[in-house]
Amino acid sequence: MESPFRVTVQEPDFDTGAELDALGRVDCGAVASFVGRVRKGSDDVRAMTLEHYPAMTEKALNQIMDEARERWPLLAVRVIHRVGRLLPGEQIVLVAVAALHRSEAFAACEFIMDWLKTKAPFWKKEETPAGSHWVDARESDDAAAARWRLGDGQGG
Amino acid sequence: MDIHILYFAALRETLGAAEERLALPAEGLSLGQLRQHLAARGGDWQALTAMRNLKAAVNQAMAGPDVQLKAGDEVAFFPPVTGG
């Protein structure tokens, strides 16, 4: 049987509904999930290419998942991150967490996303009519990751 | 024995290089010293010290400048990550 704790890095799209159904097969009371997508509209982005560091990516995601399991009693975790060229509206990332109660499911899901944003080796390049450019890291992402430091409570 | 060095994203494009092999000096080298050594090539390589918040990993784990490199290590330099 497949482990209920799994991370995958892949080019193809994923079926969020099927993933959540699969996660919910463990005996849990709560499944919380986050899906990140390529934004449509305002900022003129025609497409986005995600580069990664293949030898390190799954290792980093597994470490983040393990850190979440140390902090909350989780029953199942699914992380899928896409790489390659993505169009506006397409799914980029799925983080889904199953637990007995909603509080740990919500918290662990947010924690995994916050750490993924600052610790997993992915880089986004945006294509606009004026050319392509690498997306700059945001200080707000560092701040979001930092509030989960041990001793800072539950990330309030 | 050599180390294997990888460059990613904006840094890879600036350098025009995705990877290389480099012989370690007999006296050893820290990650910070390697970064200075590469930047000393001049030209585009100065990005190694000029690029803001450049990150590094040794054997696929984030690493700081004091880490001592050894033969066979895989070192990677890259800009702050922007996934998710």
At a glance:
The complex is a heterodimer of chains A (156) and B (84). Chain A is of the alpha+beta class. Chain A has 4 helices and 8 strands.
Describe what this molecule looks like in 3D.
The complex is a heterodimer of chains A (156) and B (84). Chain A is α+β, with helices and mostly antiparallel strands and 156 residues long. Chain A has a single domain (5-146), classed as Aldehyde Oxidoreductase, domain 3 (Alpha-Beta Complex). Chain A has helices at residues 16-23, 54-71, 102-119, 139-146; strands spanning 5-10, 30-37, 47-52, 74-82, 84-86, 91-99, 122-128, 131-134. In chain A, the strands form 2 sheets. Chain A has a 4-stranded mixed beta sheet, sandwiched between helices. Chain A has a 4-stranded antiparallel beta sheet with strand order 5-3-7-8. In chain A, a hairpin with a 2-residue loop joins strand 7 and strand 8 (131-134). In chain A, helix 3 packs across helix 4 (139-146). Chain A is globular, with a radius of gyration of 16 Å. Chain B is α+β, with helices and mostly antiparallel strands and 84 residues long. Chain B has a single domain, classed as Ubiquitin-like (UB roll) (Roll), CATH 3.10.20.30. Chain B contains 3 helices and 7 strands, in the order βαββααββββ. Chain B has helices at 9-15, 31-39, 47-50; strands at residues 2-7, 19-23, 29-30, 55-58, 61-62, 68-69, 74-78. In chain B, the strands form 2 sheets. Chain B has a 5-stranded mixed beta sheet with strand order 2-1-7-4-5. In chain B, a hairpin with a 2-residue loop joins strand 4 (55-58) and strand 5. The longest helix of chain B is centred in the middle third of the chain and has 9 residues, at 31-39. Chains A and B meet through strand 3, helix 2, helix 3 and strand 7 of A and strand 5 and strand 7 of B.
Characteristics:
heterodimer, A: 156 residues, alpha+beta, Aldehyde Oxidoreductase, domain 3, 4-stranded mixed beta sheet, 4-stranded antiparallel beta sheet, 8 strands, B: 84 residues, Ubiquitin-like (UB roll), 5-stranded mixed beta sheet, two-stranded antiparallel ribbon, 24% helix, 31% strand
